[in-house]
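This protein record is not my work; I was only asked to verify it. The record follows directly below this note.
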Amino acid sequence: MGINLLKFIFVLLKKTLKSLLPKEIFDRVAQSKSLPNIKPRFKLEGLKRLKIFLFSLFLLNFAATPFSLMEESAYAFDSQKNTVTEQIQTEQLPILSLPHPGYLSTKFSNYHPGIDIATGFGMPVHPVAAGIIEEVNLGFLGLGNNAVISHSNNFKSTYGHMGRVYVKKGDEVNLNTTLGTVGMSGFTTGPHTHLEIEVMGKKIDTETILPKLDEYPKEEFLKRFTKVYKEMKISTNLKPEFN
């Protein structure tokens, strides 16, 4: 895949997301000034070569996200089979807040015991409620860099795939505490927070007890993606090409 194609994908995605996200959200994302200037060189060996490959893979996976999202019915949790939620009383939980602005990109299911909130790199991650840090885990697998908070009323919350982590075990946190930043650690193909809520040892559908989240705007993204693509073809000679 040519260098021009990678540049094209990056610029196209950046412009599309900037036009799609509300200004107040986009402005909060910590943009890396070095990212647009990355120039892949495929003749490099060892670690540098691996970095280029992973960066390219991220661009392609993130570009394909709105095209490959499964239909809502595939993620929908069958309430008749959801014996866990039926057995758990959530009325005693405090009013929860979103960890950060974003879009609901993956719903809760039997195979995905949480929700994914998609946003940009560097977005501050906050607790959904006050509590005490029970665990802080750093790693490249699973949920990557993540934190677990123990709250009152016998419930816990987990925040996965963070980039930087600013808290440690035993810290008391509240809604204003910054746990870390949105990243791509662990198994993920795009920047987001994997959020899990556990009540009395059982995972519950996080979406049902959080403020409303807009679902990932697949159709709107595709429409704007196409519009930006056409504008770029006219305004620049930077065109995708294959070697």
